[in-house]
Specification:
about 325 residues, alpha/beta, TIM Barrel, ten-stranded mixed β-sheet, two-stranded antiparallel sheet, 11 helices, about 40% helix
């Protein structure tokens, strides 16, 4: 028998062959682009740690959404920075809050673009935590009411999907019940099911002005050391009616994405978070890595691991390359 029988290099010889046998193909339709809405008009303020990403007033966000739709990107996820923050996160569930008004304006201008909302309180509380503080910790069950109210207000404003990111116990059930109670049974929930207490969220907290003023989020977000617990979290969210399960962050948690893909027959999403984006941008700006190459390599690996939906600050750049 001639040696070697298998020569895998045969299928790598030319780009034509490589593209024929490529197992993972990215497409802009699978990307979701995060937007940060701020009060005012004509405002477009670059987020220092996230080059190319801006805090946008609603009118500017609408322009951005027109571009995003043209690029064929799957959708946007909205975060809001309210005029005032308070202990009760009242801006989060106000029918005329920043995100609620943003949804209305975007759906009016670009009706076919999928608009998802992040459902959480940390951008709206004066202390920066994701819920009501009682005895120094976030109280689970009061926070559920705020979350359900927020999701409802988003649905009323015309959101296509809601995405709770708070990590309270029972939030998917609470939101589902609230939505169904007002006739929004057709609005899907994409839950941040396995969300870790991660150092990679640093730049986001500048973007969303949501860094906690005391303590950290470890009493509600997951310990990075735990994989089995992620399966429990995802099982609970699935059983409570989550339509899409998300893992966050992405690159340091590819094993969790792969396990989610194996275990659940719903779409799996992954969030390539702010710190993942900023690290690549910073290294590229130093000339240490090739931004486009590393951007595509990370996105490909996240999809290869099992995520068919990727929330990423690279959505526009990657869509332009594809
Ligand atoms: C809100 C929320 C956060 C992110 C998404 N939703 C911040 C946090 O939990 O501290 C992080 C996104 C990113 O880093 O890009 N709870």
């Amino acid at each position: 028998m001639p040696f070697p029988i298998h020569r895998p290099r045969r299928l790598r010889r030319t780009e034509a062959i490589r593209s024929l046998v490529r197992e993972t193909r990215l497409s802009p339709e699978g990307f979701i682009y995060p937007l940060f809405l701020v009060p005012g008009e004509g405002k477009r303020k670059e987020i220092g740690s996230m080059p190319g990403n801006n805090q946008l007033s609603i009118d500017e966000a609408v322009k951005e959404c027109e571009e995003i739709a043209k690029l064929g990107i799957g959708g946007v996820i909205l975060f809001g920075i309210p005029e005032v923050k308070d202990d009760e996160a009242s801006g989060a569930y106000h029918d005329h809050g920043i995100v609620q008004e943003g949804i209305r304006a975007i759906k009016r201008a670009v009706p076919d673009l999928l608009v998802i909302t992040d459902v959480c309180n940390c951008e709206y509380t004066s202390h920066g935590h994701c819920g009501k503080i009682i005895e120094g910790d976030v109280d689970n069950d009061t926070t559920l009411e705020w979350l359900a109210d927020s999701a409802l207000s988003h649905a009323r404003a015309g959101a296509d999907m809601v995405a709770p990111s708070d990590m309270m116990d029972g939030r998917v059930a609470a939101i589902r019940e609230a939505l169904d109670g007002e006739g929004f049974e057709k609005i899907p929930i994409m839950s941040y099911a396995a969300k870790y207490a991660s150092g990679f969220y640093g730049p986001f907290r500048e973007a969303a002005e949501s860094a906690p003023t005391f303590g950290d989020r470890r009493s509600y977000q997951m310990d990075p050391a735990n994989g089995r617990e992620a399966m429990l979290e995802m099982t609970l969210d699935f059983e409570e009616g989550a339509d899409i399960l998300m893992v966050k962050p992405a690159l340091a948690y590819l094993d969790i994405i792969a396990a989610a893909r194996q275990s659940f027959d719903v779409p799996i999403a992954a969030y390539q978070v702010s710190g993942e984006f900023s690290m690549i941008m910073a290294a590229a700006r130093n000339g240490w890595i090739d931004k486009d190459r590393v951007m595509m390599e990370t996105l490909t690996s996240i999809q290869r691991a099992g995520a068919s939906i990727i929330l990423t600050y690279f959505a526009k750049d990657a869509a332009r390359l594809l």
